Amino acid sequence: MTTRFLAMGIALYASSVLAQTPTLTPFDKLPDWSGTWSMMGGTVFDRATQTGKGGSIDPGVREHPPYTAEYEKKYAEHLKLRDEDRYPDVQTNCGVPSGFPRILNLPDAYEFVVRPDVFYIIAENGGNTMRVYTDGRKLPGKEDTWGTYTGVSVGHWEGDTLVWDTVGLKGDRDNDSILDRTGLVISDAAKITTRMRKINNDTLEAKMEIQDPKALTKTWTVTKQFKKGKPGLFLYDYGCAENNRNPVDLVTGQTHTLGSDGKLIK
Amino acid sequence: MKSVFTVSFAALVIGAGTVAIQPALAHHSSAGFSDGTKLVTGTVKEFQFRNPHSWIQVNVVDESGKVTEWSVEWGSPNQLGREGIRPSTFPAGTQVSIKLRPDLTGHPIGIFVGAKMSDGKIVGKWSDE
Question: pTM value?
Answer without folding.
Answer: 0.84
